[in-house]
Every structure is written in C-alpha cells, then in structure tokens.
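Usage

Read records sequentially. Each one opens with the input sequence:
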Amino acid sequence: MAKAIFHPQAWLNDWATDVDPEGPTDYEVGGVPGDMEDNSYASDRLRDHDNAPDWVKEWSGPFWVEIVRVV
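and closes with the structure output:
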C-alpha cells in the first residue's frame, strides 16, 4: 500500500520552485512497484491516478511526486 504526495511548483528564474498547493496533496495510490522512486518520470504518472484530487490532475506547472509506502 502506498500514498502519493503531490508537490506543486512554478518556474522562477528558470528554476522550478515549490508553491502553495490549491487543495489536498496526498492520496492513496494502492500498490506501486518497489523500484519506483520519488521525483521520477515513473512517479509523475501518479498525478493522473484515479484518487488524485482534480486540481492535481489539472496542474499545468512543474511538480514532483513523493511516494510514501505503508508497511
């Protein structure tokens, strides 16, 4: 079992900078492969997970996704 935490960002002087979220940032994603890492192209796909809040799915700026595995 795992949870994703969405970290929204915006471009500031050509750097992706963390910004305040527009709503809840964490959501259950079920099982994820053990080798999936935070802040990777693979974890970016979790943005479109069925449980992701609508604002997360619609985010147009840069972002990264953290994975929290529940043991």
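Summary fields computed downstream for this record:
- The first helix runs from residue 41 to 44.
- The chain has two helices and four strands.
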